[in-house]
Task: structure prediction
Amino acid sequence: MQKTLVVVGNGMVGHRLVAAVRERDRAGEWRVVVFGEEARPAYDRVALTSYVDDWDAGRLALAEHDRDVEVRLGDPVVSIDRAACTVTSASGAVLGYDALVLATGSYPFVPPVPGHDLPGCHVYRTIDDLDGIRDYASRIRRGRRAALVVGGGLLGLEAAKALRDLGLSPHVVELAPWLMPLQVDAGGGALLRRLITDLDVTVHAGTGTKAIERDGERLVAKLGNGTELDVDLVVFAAGVRPRDSLAAAAGLALGERGGVVVDSACRTDDPHVWAVGECACVGGRVHGLVAPGYAMAEVVADRLLGGTATFAEADTATKLKLLGVDVASFGDAHARAEGALEVVLNDAVSGSYKKLVLSDDASTLLGGVLVGDASAYAALRPLVGRPVPVDPVGLLAGAEPAGTLPADAQVCSCHAVTRAAVDGAIAEGCADVPALKACTKAGTGCGSCVPMLKRLLGEAGVVQSKALCEHFTQSRVELFEIVRTTGVRTFSDLVARHGTGRGCDVCKPAVASMLASTGGGHVLDGEQAALQDTNDHFLANLQRNGTYSVVPRIPGGEITPHRLMVIAQVAQDYGLYTKITGGQRIDLFGARVEDLPAIWRRLVDAGFESGHAYGKALRTVKSCVGSTWCRYGVQDSVRMAIELELRYRGLRSPHKIKAGVSGCARECAEARGKDFGVIATEHGWNLYVAGNGGFTPRHAQLLVSDVDSATLVRLIDRFLMFYVRTADRLQRTSAWLESLDGGLDHLREVIVDDTLGVCADLEAAMARHVESYSDEWRGVLDDPDKLARFTSFVNAPGAPDPTVTFREERGQRVPVLLGVPEVVG
Amino acid sequence: MTVVCALSDLLPDRGAAALLPSGEQVALFRTGAGEVFALSNIDPFSRAAVLSRGIVGDLDGVPVVASPMHKQHFDLRTGTCVEDRAVSVRVYRVRVEAGQVVVAA
Ligand SMILES: Cc1cc2nc3c(=O)[nH]c(=O)nc-3n(C[C@H](O)[C@H](O)[C@H](O)COP(=O)(O)OP(=O)(O)OC[C@H]3O[C@@H](n4cnc5c(N)ncnc54)[C@H](O)[C@@H]3O)c2cc1C
Result:
């Protein structure tokens, strides 16, 4: 008989519990039913604030369970009958259980100040809360808008960021003398305040909120120190309380400060009932972070399947980026241990504060605080409770302690992965971070351990060789710089001066691409022709029978009936198989090498240009129909797509580049599946970068929002040129972004804030590209030397390849493949 | 013996195909070092007549062509596939006489 597991709460921990049970329950022992109060699928609450970036709840969704899991959304459990072992939901459903897991999380604590329930007062916990805040903020009709955040901890600063991104000026009020008192000490708090104030957030520390009063359409907040603030909106972010009332009503024991009391197996004193996550009180403590909740979920999943796991002491270490400021705290951050010693490096100039807490004999690392620069976190956190490997000041200044990291130290606290497990995976062949992620799950949670994973790979001797191939020890990026700065213009020169041997099918096309993106000139000029892959050599795409396909450019997917007829006539005359591509153009298959010039003569005469479907280059800028026709469109997406496609056509790059422009948030152009995607807003455009379809689909991420057309084009110029210059060979933009230290934030710093001072140069390079563009096919047709190469046989220029034959399928010609060729002796 | 083309018809480090009287196709390669090689034009993996359109280079000092279809390399001297030594393509004897490329077939 299958037993029934009922899970109350479809938050982060409830979701993890179900995933963990499904993963372990190979035999199908448990039928799993989840009740969720929120009406939407489980989502990443830790990333809640990023919802403001694009208001795309789908992006936050956690992985879906398999179909056998029954999830009842928007139907909270209202009572538990422990005698009958049943739960009753708001919709009236009554369900029996063999095991019941409470994963009801927390609710926001709203201090009982007068006026806390006035319109305009919000809390900050769910997507619905954020929708409510957005809705209210959008109705404020005045110039300078301000908001008050009650609480200066993690939640309060998250809320301040959301409000700032919504265009309000946030004030944060914190009762304690400094921000984030739970995580950081006074020194770190002081720096944090300075950094946060620089970001247009006003901090009022060491005072409380006494009352909130209505003042016409606005609110007045009265602080304990006498300050009165005129604000439009208030967000309470003053902590959370466990949601334990369901358990209390069922007679289960609660902790002193709330929370469902459970033992180290996360079980209540009713053997059928368990509690996990923020609603649980384990070892007398309630935990407000996701990692301990995940650990509890794993314990219960193990127990439900006959295991004996227990919940060990929770790791409360955290690394956060709040308003762009790094904050990390781990172990005994407040030096509470008897006789604990502190080593502090407070660099007011560069804006970083680092503190280590050591045992009284300075031999053991107990904890630490990092503000402003938390790059040492991944290396330091696993060392808590262990001997300090090197001089502590050196450790703070960035000495590498990895060599001494013990095997049982936890590298990834989100998924409880030890160094031994990572080393094991490396020994079994994981050779890079993505492979380690897939194999161990390390690094797939908060991601803070990724630098450590890289370091462990390095230590294990997995040399991440950057050499392009055996002919060049340099990486593509380094070679690109050489080509760009030395003015070397031929492959033979480059390999003679900077490489060895004669080159190969890896380095030759890569260098050809660099020459093309730095110097202009035709890709088949002189020696360059011999470097090209067959596709670039014949400016067409090789197909499996040795024929080619032809793709004329159709910018933005817009085409006149006349031109459509030209394509149809050419296809008809040359017997080409015709198919519509995913990029809104038309692919003509089965063209013989010797027919390519004649086919293109007719296409070029009708005004077509090369579509570069054969190149590692810009392919298409797909568009929806936009505001010209569409009832919903807010901008002219077709015009923008055409402008972008014409601007970047012919740009050679490390890999193909695809783009899209949507005329409204409905996103019919699927722009977020592209290397760069543009989505219209009421006020301008949102720019997303580094998405792709293909083998590992990735959504593009928001780089900037609501920019005007000129800014948009300028940012895309910079983005593309930066990618062309710094990506590896055959690295799509998404993998490139993932490999950039600092990821999207770093990219934004470089190409939006221009922190490296390279933007003018990137723009100038793009301007040169735009200036020097000319159609490659026209270039061939105008040049008898280039035309002469388009033959199947050097000794029989007009003769077709006799091995190419076709048959009919659904009214068109498709290739007949050769048998294994006989070797004639 | 068949004269297939002039040496000057072949670009350094690039191939070209020639049609023999028997109907066979040879892929001719002229390396940057000035040597000329001839292999069957048919890629044994894809069975398409495309080897002449591959990129010419060297691996560990061995002159090779990379099939344009799926990038296996063939030793220009022996026709052996570098990635799978059990596979090879036919090698034709070839020489240059008075500026003309002559294939033994
Ligand atoms: C803005 C923000 C930023 C955060 N940042 C971090 C961070 O950086 N690091 C970190 O570790 N943690 C962070 N947290 C905390 C983290 O989100 C929580 O620790 C985590 O979500 C706890 O998971 P949970 O499943 O216990 O609770 P929740 O995720 O709150 O899920 C509980 C779910 O149960 C539902 N529920 C309640 N009662 C019932 C019922 N009777 N029937 C059915 N369903 C019910 C609720 O509606 C809710 O959906 C952050 C939280 C917020 C709000």
The interface with chain B takes residues 470-471, 492, 501-505, 507-509, 529-535, 537-538, 542, 544-546, 792-796, 799, 801-804, 817-821, 823-824 of chain A (CB under 8 Å). Residues A 8-14, 35-38, 45-46, 48-49, 76-77, 103-106, 124-125, 154-155, 158, 243, 246, 277-278, 288-291, 293, 318, 320 surround flavin-adenine dinucleotide (CB under 6 Å). DSSP finds 27 helices and 39 strands in chain A.
